[in-house]
Amino acid sequence: xxxxxxxxRDCNLTKELIFKILQEYGxxxxxQTTDSDIQDIEANYNDRNGIFxxxxxxxxxxxxxxxxxxxxxxxxxxxxxxxxxxxxxxxYGKLLLNHAIKQAKELGYKRVILETASVLKEAIQxxxxxxxxxxxxxxxxxxxxxGFYLDI
Length: 152
What we know:
The protein has four helices and seven strands.
């Protein structure tokens, strides 16, 4: 397994991977708002004190994504943490979450927030097991109905 930083050369591959997983759960894609950030990974993540990373299997194929998106100097948002179906249940979600939280700390953030949808039961269980607490954000993206935060 290899976690690497994504660049704009990865935008199409990232979009395909994420959209396939969203469709699997019956969640809508939205390139105009919620998913517009992955059309320019470098500007939206890497160039503004965030990260967008891809987890590759031993053959070099992408199997997961995760992003840390700057909200302000103390708060970041965990975004686009998706893992392909064939690799779920193997501990890669926890690996990615640990990686993202470590990156958020190194970038100087004090709190990580996230939005998710009820149908993503495995992810919600992972977040809660990690210590994320439920809260009601001022705004939720169109496909999300829950918010969580973790002070780090």
